[in-house]
Amino acid sequence: MISKTQLKNKSAASIATTSLALFLVAQPAQATAILDVFEIGTYSQIYQLDIPSTANYGGATPSYNIDNSGTLIPGGIDRIGYYMELQASGGDRQWVWASMDAFTQNLGQTGVPVISTGAIWQQLIANMNVESNVSSIVTGTGIGTGNIEFWHNCYTQDNEIGIPGADGGNYDFGDNNNNTASCYGSMQLHNYGASQTLFAWNAWDHSSFNDLGIGNNSSGHPDWTFANTASTYSLKSLEVWVNPTIQNVPEPTTLALLGLGLAGLGLSRKRKAK
Ligand SMILES: [Ca+2]
Ligand SMILES: [Ca+2]
Ligand SMILES: [Ca+2]
User: Fold this and answer.
1) What is the rounded distance in angstroms from the CA atom of residue 256 to the CA atom of residue 52?
2) Are the CB atoms for 59 and 114 separated by under 8 Å?
3) How far away, in angstroms, is 208 Cα from ligand 1 center?
4) Could you tell me if residue 180 is left (phi over 0), alpha (psi between -120 and 50 degrees) or otherwise beta?
5) Ligand 1 mean position to 20 CA, how many Å?
6) Is the pLDDT of residue 1 over 50?
7) What are the CA-CA distances from residue 93 to residues 4, 158, 187, 194, 209 (Å)?
8) Which pLDDT value is given to residue 155?
9) Which ligand is nearest to the CA of 166?
10) Mean pLDDT, to the nearest integer, of 71-87?
C-alpha cells in the first residue's frame, strides 16, 4: 500500500517535473541567472531579453521573452538584480550579476530605460553584491561604491553628478545625460570604487551603433560607448530580478484553512464550557 506521505511526495515530485519541463520550454538555450548566481534563491524574475545585434527602439518596448513587470508583489521589493550573459562565437561564455538596494518600486522602470518607461536612473546605488565568472570583475557583497547610468538620452563625457574618480574626457562610469531627446541610450552598471564598468549596453536608441560589453572596454572608451560590439556576440542575454521584501508568505488558502480550524476550535471550546 502507498502511504499518504508517499502519495504526497509523489505528487510533489510530478509537480516539480512538470514545472521544470515548462521552465525549460519557456527559456531560451542559455545558462540563465538561476544556474550561475548564488544569491538568486529568494529573487523573482521580472525580465529576460535576448539582446538584439541591432536596436533602435525610440519609444518602442524591447521584445522581452519574459516580462513580469505587471506582477503585484505584496509588500514591495527590497533589492533589484541584473544579470548579463555574453558569448562570442568560439569564445568563453561571460556573465556578471549585480544586485543592489531597490532604487524604485516600479517594476516597469527596472528594465531597458526606453523613453516610454519614463525611467532615467543616474545615481549612486547602495549595498551592491557582485558575482561573475570574468576574472577581471571585482566581486563581493555589500559593495558601497555602485552607480547606474540608465537613460534613453544622448550623453557627453563630463562627470555631471561628480562620481568619484570618473574622467571628464572619457565615456566611463561618470557621464552627462544632458540631452533630453531620445537618442543613443545607456544601460550601464558600474563599481566606481574599482573604476569598473560591470556591464554596458548602449546605442539601443541609435540607428547604426550597438555597443555591448562586460567589464571595462580595454580599447576605446571604458564604458563601451561607440564600441559597436553587439553583433560580435552570438549569445547575449539580459535578465532583471527582484527580491520581495516579504519572504515565505503563506498561500491564502493555507491561511484561510488555518483560520477556519482555529475558529472551529474556539466554538467547540465555548460549547463545552456551557
Ligand atoms: Ca566621463
Ligand atoms: Ca557612461
Ligand atoms: Ca542601435
Assistant:
1) 47
2) yes
3) 22
4) alpha
5) 45
6) no
7) 46, 33, 20, 23, 23
8) 96
9) 1
10) 97
Confidence at residue 272, expressed as pLDDT on a 0 to 100 scale: 45
Supply 136's cell numbers: 577581471
- What predicted TM-score, i.e. pTM, was given to this entire model? 0.81
pLDDT at 254: 54
Range from 110-114, 154-158, 264-268 carrying the lowest mean pLDDT: 264-268
Q: Which ligand is nearest to the CA of 155?
A: 2
Buried b / exposed e along 102-124 (16+ C-beta atoms within 10 A): bbeeebbbbbbbbbebebbbbeb
pLDDT above 80: residue 261:
no
| 251 to 7, 121, 230, 257: CA distances (angstroms) | 21, 35, 43, 10
Contact 211/201 with Cβ under 8 angstroms? yes
Q: What is the mean pLDDT of residues 61-77?
A: 97
Protein residues within 5 Å, CB atom, of ion ligand 2: 149, 175, 223
* Closest among 27, 40, 135, 36 to 85, alpha carbons compared: 36
Q: How far, in Å, CA of 182 to CA of 180, rounded?
A: 7
Q: How far apart are CA 219 and CA 227, in angstroms?
A: 8
- pLDDT band at residue 50, thresholds of 50, 70 and 90? very high
Please enumerate in sequence order all residues whose Cβ is within 8 A of that of 41, keeping only pairs 6 or more positions apart, or say none.
none
